[in-house]
Amino acid sequence: MTGLVAAERGIGETALADALPEVVVVAFAAVTHLADPWFLFGLLAVGYWFAGDGTAESPRRAGATAVAAVTCAYAATALGKAWFAVPRPPGAVGPVDVPAWLPGLLSAWYEAQVLSDGFGFPSGHATGGAAAYLALALLYDRIWTDRTRYVAAAAVAVAVAASRVVIEVHYLVDVLAGLIVGGGVVLGALWLAGDPRVRRSPLSDAAGGPTADPAADPTAELNPEPAFLLAAVVSAGALAVAVAGGHTGEVVEAGVGVATGAGGAIGWRLVDGDEPAVPVRAAVPALAVTGGLWIGAYALADPLVVTLAATTAAVVAVVALPVLPERIEGLSRIRD
């Protein structure tokens, strides 16, 4: 199966990237941050915690489903990278030609951006970016118009995908595969969550399968738990493939995927899905705690069990946070 994707799969895009002005390459190095995992999950967590009725009929269900969809996208990426196990372009391993006009701090940042290890197919940034921005456009359906949201989501996803080619850490086929996988995973996650726009389709009608009321609000009854569980299962498959292939880096990434999917499913069990926005007084300490757990999860990647435990705890806390103020208030009333 690994022969389906060649190690040398470029079509001349590297030469094109080399011909671009340095300032353009530096700008694309900044654009790629829009799909860094820390940025995407931070963005999704903020939406999940703080979104109001002006964003969706059920902002908590919409937000959790977006998180679950992106978790599935990263699980698919982990499986693909471990399965195909093909390298990145030669430029991703250095040496780096840092523009002389960049100041010291930016030089270190630029070098970190254009050096990447691990496998190259599919692109995690392209997959995650496509999944995240499409999910946001579909689920927060009271913001702007449908067309504006979809165009904005496509523009950001394509810009991120292009940035990975321009800074020469991926081939064009890597990012195209990522865009396709990311979009497909979102539709699958929404189907699992019960989105009526996906559940009602010509295929389901022709097959005589269940259909949903097309007039129903798409976020009113969403249940992200099946998508979280699917992410955990796919990540477990990626973990098995990575272990069998001896791919240490992918073992950690897949393990984090298992923990994220499981943590999301557990956390969702603790909420009703109809809670109000999280008060800032609760979000600030929660952000400090969950951020500390995330940092600890990667800093203590050995042994793996510590990473899994810390990641699971962090994700449970993020997803269960909307119910925390009510629980604290209830305990206060009992004490009084």
Notes on the protein architecture:
It is a single chain. Mean pLDDT is about 90; it is low at about 205-210. Helix 3 runs antiparallel to helix 4 (about 60-85), helix 4 (about 60-85) runs antiparallel to helix 12 and helix 6 runs parallel beside helix 8. The chain is built from 15 helices and no strands. About 70% of the residues lie in helices and about 0% in strands. The chain has about 325 residues and is mainly alpha-helical. The longest helix has 26 residues, at about 60-85. It is globular and about 55 Å long.
Describe the protein's topology.
Layout: H1 13-18, H2 22-31, H3 37-50, H4 59-84, H5 104-114, H6 124-139, H7 146-166, H8 172-193, H9 196-199, H10 202-206, H11 225-245, H12 248-269, H13 280-299, H14 304-320, H15 324-335
Helix pairs in contact: 2-7, 3-4, 4-6, 4-8, 4-11, 4-12, 6-7, 6-8, 7-8, 11-12, 12-14, 13-14
List keywords for this structure.
68% helix; 336 residues; mainly alpha; 15 helices
Rg over C-alpha atoms, rounded to the nearest angstrom: 21 Å
Shape, per Cα inertia axes = globular
- Which structural class do the helices and strands define? mainly alpha
Percentage of residues in strands: under 5%
Instruction: Indicate the percent of residues in helices.
Output: 55-70%
Q: What is the overall pLDDT average?
A: 90
Weakly predicted, low-confidence segments: 203-211
- The helix tally amounts to 15
Order of helices and strands: HHHHHHHHHHHHHHH
